[in-house]
Design a protein that fits this description.
The protein has 148 residues and is an alpha+beta fold. The protein is built from 5 helices and 8 strands.
Length: 148
Protein backbone atom coordinates (compact mmCIF):
# COMPACT_ATOMS: atom_id res chain seq x y z
CA UNK A 1 0.00 0.00 0.00
CA UNK A 2 1.45 3.37 -1.02
CA UNK A 3 0.52 5.82 1.70
CA UNK A 4 1.41 9.44 2.11
CA UNK A 5 1.20 10.32 5.77
CA UNK A 6 -0.12 13.86 6.18
CA UNK A 7 -1.63 16.06 8.86
CA UNK A 8 -1.05 16.42 12.57
CA UNK A 9 -3.05 15.64 15.69
CA UNK A 10 -2.53 15.69 19.44
CA UNK A 11 -2.64 12.37 21.32
CA UNK A 12 -2.00 11.10 24.81
CA UNK A 13 0.15 8.04 25.47
CA UNK A 14 -1.39 5.54 27.87
CA UNK A 15 0.17 4.49 31.20
CA UNK A 16 2.25 1.81 29.38
CA UNK A 17 3.63 4.36 26.87
CA UNK A 18 1.51 3.03 24.02
CA UNK A 19 0.35 5.27 21.21
CA UNK A 20 -3.04 4.67 19.67
CA UNK A 21 -2.18 5.07 15.99
CA UNK A 22 -4.67 7.26 14.13
CA UNK A 23 -7.28 4.98 12.54
CA UNK A 24 -6.73 6.39 9.04
CA UNK A 25 -3.14 5.08 9.04
CA UNK A 26 -3.63 1.64 10.54
CA UNK A 27 -4.23 -0.08 7.20
CA UNK A 28 -0.83 1.10 5.93
CA UNK A 29 0.83 -0.34 9.05
CA UNK A 30 -1.02 -3.66 9.34
CA UNK A 31 1.71 -5.51 7.43
CA UNK A 32 4.23 -4.52 10.08
CA UNK A 33 6.00 -1.39 11.10
CA UNK A 34 9.33 -0.12 12.30
CA UNK A 35 9.76 2.31 15.17
CA UNK A 36 12.96 4.34 14.89
CA UNK A 37 14.82 7.34 16.15
CA UNK A 38 14.32 10.00 13.53
CA UNK A 39 16.99 12.54 12.59
CA UNK A 40 14.97 15.20 14.39
CA UNK A 41 14.27 14.68 18.12
CA UNK A 42 11.17 12.57 17.51
CA UNK A 43 10.17 8.95 16.93
CA UNK A 44 9.38 7.69 13.44
CA UNK A 45 6.77 5.06 12.59
CA UNK A 46 7.48 3.51 9.20
CA UNK A 47 5.68 0.78 7.30
CA UNK A 48 8.28 -2.01 7.21
CA UNK A 49 8.83 -1.79 3.45
CA UNK A 50 9.10 2.00 3.66
CA UNK A 51 11.85 1.78 6.26
CA UNK A 52 13.73 -0.73 4.15
CA UNK A 53 13.50 1.65 1.17
CA UNK A 54 14.64 4.57 3.35
CA UNK A 55 17.69 2.64 4.58
CA UNK A 56 18.64 1.65 1.03
CA UNK A 57 18.32 5.27 -0.15
CA UNK A 58 20.39 6.54 2.80
CA UNK A 59 23.20 4.17 1.84
CA UNK A 60 22.98 4.58 -1.92
CA UNK A 61 26.37 5.53 -3.36
CA UNK A 62 28.00 5.08 0.08
CA UNK A 63 30.56 2.30 0.28
CA UNK A 64 29.50 -0.12 3.06
CA UNK A 65 33.07 -0.35 4.38
CA UNK A 66 33.55 3.42 4.63
CA UNK A 67 33.33 5.05 8.04
CA UNK A 68 30.37 7.10 6.82
CA UNK A 69 28.57 4.03 5.52
CA UNK A 70 29.22 2.06 8.69
CA UNK A 71 27.99 4.92 10.89
CA UNK A 72 24.81 5.40 8.87
CA UNK A 73 24.07 1.65 8.90
CA UNK A 74 24.73 1.39 12.63
CA UNK A 75 22.54 4.38 13.43
CA UNK A 76 19.66 3.12 11.32
CA UNK A 77 19.92 -0.47 12.53
CA UNK A 78 20.66 0.02 16.23
CA UNK A 79 18.05 2.72 16.70
CA UNK A 80 15.09 0.95 15.14
CA UNK A 81 12.93 -1.95 16.12
CA UNK A 82 10.19 -3.93 14.37
CA UNK A 83 6.76 -3.70 15.93
CA UNK A 84 3.11 -4.26 15.21
CA UNK A 85 -0.24 -2.84 16.14
CA UNK A 86 -2.20 -4.61 18.84
CA UNK A 87 -5.92 -5.35 18.49
CA UNK A 88 -6.74 -1.80 19.66
CA UNK A 89 -4.40 -0.16 17.12
CA UNK A 90 -1.75 0.69 19.70
CA UNK A 91 2.01 0.45 19.48
CA UNK A 92 4.36 0.46 22.50
CA UNK A 93 7.23 2.95 22.58
CA UNK A 94 10.46 1.61 24.05
CA UNK A 95 12.41 3.67 26.61
CA UNK A 96 15.27 4.48 24.20
CA UNK A 97 12.75 5.98 21.78
CA UNK A 98 10.93 7.88 24.52
CA UNK A 99 14.27 9.34 25.63
CA UNK A 100 15.32 10.33 22.10
CA UNK A 101 12.08 12.23 21.52
CA UNK A 102 11.88 13.52 25.09
CA UNK A 103 8.33 12.20 24.95
CA UNK A 104 5.87 12.66 27.75
CA UNK A 105 2.26 11.54 27.78
CA UNK A 106 1.24 14.54 25.63
CA UNK A 107 2.42 14.01 22.04
CA UNK A 108 1.67 15.22 18.55
CA UNK A 109 1.54 12.72 15.68
CA UNK A 110 2.76 14.32 12.46
CA UNK A 111 2.56 13.07 8.89
CA UNK A 112 5.99 13.24 7.24
CA UNK A 113 5.31 11.81 3.78
CA UNK A 114 6.49 8.20 3.89
CA UNK A 115 6.22 7.90 7.67
CA UNK A 116 4.71 9.32 10.83
CA UNK A 117 6.60 11.24 13.49
CA UNK A 118 5.76 11.30 17.20
CA UNK A 119 6.82 14.54 18.84
CA UNK A 120 6.80 15.94 22.33
CA UNK A 121 3.89 18.36 21.93
CA UNK A 122 5.80 21.48 22.99
CA UNK A 123 8.85 20.53 20.91
CA UNK A 124 6.62 20.05 17.85
CA UNK A 125 5.06 23.48 18.29
CA UNK A 126 8.49 25.13 18.41
CA UNK A 127 9.84 23.06 15.49
CA UNK A 128 6.77 23.70 13.34
CA UNK A 129 6.98 27.43 14.04
CA UNK A 130 10.62 27.36 12.87
CA UNK A 131 9.60 25.37 9.76
CA UNK A 132 7.05 28.06 8.93
CA UNK A 133 9.73 30.74 9.36
CA UNK A 134 12.25 28.84 7.19
CA UNK A 135 10.05 27.56 4.36
CA UNK A 136 10.23 30.74 2.26
CA UNK A 137 14.05 30.71 2.25
CA UNK A 138 14.12 26.97 1.60
CA UNK A 139 11.76 27.32 -1.36
CA UNK A 140 13.68 30.32 -2.72
CA UNK A 141 16.64 28.01 -3.35
CA UNK A 142 14.60 26.39 -6.14
CA UNK A 143 14.63 29.72 -7.98
CA UNK A 144 18.43 29.97 -7.94
CA UNK A 145 20.01 29.60 -11.38
CA UNK A 146 21.65 26.26 -12.00
CA UNK A 147 25.42 26.32 -12.13
CA UNK A 148 27.42 24.27 -14.58
Amino acid sequence: MDTSFTGQADYTLDAKNRLTVPARYRGALEGGLVLAKDIEPCVAIWPTAGYDDFRRAALQDVHPMSQRGRKIMTFLSANSTPAGLDSAGRVPLQPFLMDHGKLTREVTVVGAGGHLQIWNRDAWTAYNDQLAADIFDISAAFDAPATA
